[in-house]
Amino acid sequence: MNNTIPYIHVGSGNFSIQRLQIIIDTNIFTPVAIVDLDKKKTYKNLSKINYKKIDLKKRIFKTISEAHKKHEAKACFIFASSDSHANLCIESLRANLHTYCVKSVALNKIQFKKIMNEKNKRRNLVFFQGYNNQWNEASLKMQEWINSKDGIGQMIGGKCICWGRQDLSRLKNDDHLVNPGMFFHTLACHQLSQLIAAKGLPNYVTSISHNHVSSELGYKKVFGTTGGQCIFEYPNNVPFSYIGSRAAHSNPYGFASRWSGQWIIHGKNGDLIRQGGRLTLYKKGFSVRDVYLKDLDEKLKTDEIPQIKIFHQLIKKNKKMKKFEENSINTWVLLEACNESARIKKRISLKDFKKKLLKNK
Ligand SMILES: NC(=O)c1ccc[n+]([C@@H]2O[C@H](COP(=O)([O-])OP(=O)(O)OC[C@H]3O[C@@H](n4cnc5c(N)ncnc54)[C@H](O)[C@@H]3O)[C@@H](O)[C@H]2O)c1
Fold first, then answer.
1. Between 3.40.50.720, 3.40.30.10, 2.20.25.10, 3.40.1280.10, what CATH number should domain 5-130 receive?
2. 4-to-27, 58, 111, 191 alpha-carbon distances in Å
3. What is the pLDDT of residue 252?
4. Is residue 257 very low, low, confident or very high in pLDDT (cuts 50, 70, 90)?
5. 47-94: per-residue pLDDT in tens?
6. Residue nearest to atom 20 of ligand 1 (CA)
7. How much is the pLDDT for 169?
8. Interval between CA 316 and ligand 1 midpoint (Å)
9. Which of 12, 75, 223, 281 has a Cα at 20 to 30 A from 96?
10. Domain limits of the chain?
11. How many angstroms separate the alpha carbon of residue 78 from the centre of ligand 1?
């Protein structure tokens, strides 16, 4: 229990309230206050929470600063609307709080630079972005096969496809629809965070954004909101392609997100195929492993826990976890580089792009 870190919880929508319970259940963070602009809704939604230690209904605030003035905390978890994330991250870092924010921390380069500027002034603070699709059994097995001799050996090329169907016509002015570039930041992120976890940042990206209008699904031709296609170049000229669309096929229940992705990856010692939870490893023309593992958990519950634990370890200064913090930042950089390439119709060097984004003012 000594390891429990007091923290401020931002957001009280459905997803956020589920995360609150998940964090409470880990027993390594203690929520000391909750922040949301809508206090009434927060009060109501807190009834869904099983937590006896502190009566959070008496500790609802409209800003992180107000909450922090009244209640001592060391960290802050943010799960609010994406368009408010950048300002909330900045407020949290300025309050000297280790900051965890669900994707996407920023909607554009200006916001991202502002956050990183604050972070760079406080090198002792952890800044972690939550991407929850890379921790499930199926993804971890894929990462293992990509990176081991027993798996595919050195990667020589690969591809990932994602065809989610998202009907956004129900949501008025949803972030996904009205902010340019949100396809990569809010959908492709679920697959490409896995690629970063396995292989790190590529050297280059060339990308094209789909330009699809669909009144039926609510797509409005806002740049980079519908889908995208790109090719990454890893060292030694190793290519990796990605194709993703929101306007794809559904299942008999009317909805299929297929966040995990469909993958084919070739290596010097073998090849792998993955469809969601099913993975097959081939060597010399034969399938040598064929497994069906758990991918997405209901409500993404178990998918969230590893990154909450990593955030805790980072605060406790476990240096082995540093790569995960870096991966979470690199994922944002990669997604925005995909947007940048599509925007300016050029091949982007990730090294140069990242350097510019992280440059101190
Ligand atoms: N797979 C995933 O990682 C995944 C899945 C679902 C949702 N999400 C993300 O989680 C976040 C929260 O989801 P949700 O369903 O709970 O959202 P929601 O839209 O139901 O609720 C957002 C809440 O944020 C509050 N808010 C907005 N601006 C604020 C501000 N400046 N200060 C304080 N509170 C503010 C609103 O009042 C609202 O209660 C979203 O960014 C969403 O994209 C991620």
1. 3.40.50.720
2. 7, 21, 31, 32
3. 57
4. low
5. 999 999 999 999 999 999 999 999 999 999 999 999 999 999 999 999
6. 13
7. 81
8. 27
9. 12
10. 5-130, 136-301+333-350
11. 8
CA-based end-to-end distance of the chain: 40
* Candidate CATH numbers 3.30.420.40, 3.90.1150.10, 1.20.1300.10, 3.30.360.10; the one for domain 136-301+333-350: 3.30.360.10
CB of 133 shorter than 6 A to ligand 1: no
In the chain, the amino acid numbered 68 is H
State yes or no: pLDDT of 176 exceeds 90.
no
Query: Candidates 15, 136, 194, 332: which one to mutate for ligand 1, based on the most atoms within 8 Å of Cβ?
Result: 15
| Confidence category of residue 215, pLDDT binned at 50, 70, 90 | confident
pTM value surpassing 0.85: yes
C-alpha of residue 147 to centroid of ligand 1, in Å: 35
H/E stretch holding 214 reads strand 213-214
In terms of residues, how long is the chain? Answer: 361
Answer whether residue 361 shows pLDDT above 80: no
Tally of CB atoms within 10 A around 358: 15
Query: What integer best gives the mean pLDDT of the chain?
Result: 93
Structure tokens at 142: 């894929």
Q: 10: Cβ below 6 Å to ligand 1?
A: yes
Q: Is the CB of 116 under 6 A from ligand 1?
A: no
- Other C-beta atoms within 10 Å of 117: how many? 15
Token code pair at residue 220: 């409005």
Element (H, E) at 41: helix 39-45
